[in-house]
Structure formats: structure tokens, C-alpha cells
Amino acid sequence: EEEKLALPIAINKAKDIINSTEISTPERQKELENFDKYLRENKYNPGTTADFTAASLFVGLVDKYSNEKL
């Protein structure tokens, strides 16, 4: 059940990071490090959470940059 709870947390946090920081900036790196620390401290499954987080970041970035027509 704990893994089920990690999915919405990972998706929401990934969206927050995408929306509040720019790619390849120290701010984004710091936010990702804080998120990683949070997940590990709360014993979320790192493999499953990493998969969901990576997928969420990818979808968010594709959506963000496709809307900007880059």
C-alpha cells in the first residue's frame, strides 16, 4: 500500500519541480536533491518511485516544451 501512496506524491512533486524551476539550473538540482532525500527518509521504494518520477518528469517536460513550440 505504501508504494501506491508514493505515486501521487511523486507525480505532484515532479510537476511542482517542473513548474517552479528551469531545466539545468542550480535551483532545479536542489529541488531534485530535496525530493530524493524526502523519498529516502520516508522509505518509499526507490526503484518504483524513480520509475514514476522519471516518467512524470518526462511527460511534464514534453508537455511544457511542446506548448512553447521549441
Task: Detail the topology: elements first, then pairings.
Elements: H1 2-20, H2 26-41, H3 46-67
Supply the key terms.
single chain, globular, 70 residues, mainly alpha
Give a summary of the structure in a few sentences.
The protein has 70 residues and is an all-alpha fold. The protein has three helices and no strands.
Describe the structure.
By secondary structure, the chain is an all-alpha fold. The protein is built from three helices and no strands. α1 packs antiparallel against α2 (26-41) and α1 runs parallel beside α3.
Shape: globular
Low-confidence stretches are none
Radius of gyration over all CA atoms, rounded:
12 Å
Strand content range: under 5%
The end-to-end distance, rounded to whole angstroms, is: 40 Å
Main sheet attributes: strand count, strand direction, barrel closure: none
Count every helix, treating DSSP H or I runs of 4 or more residues as helices: 3
Helix content: over 70%
| Strand/helix succession | HHH
For the residues shown, what is the average pLDDT?
Answer: 79
Number of strands: 0
Structural class: mainly alpha
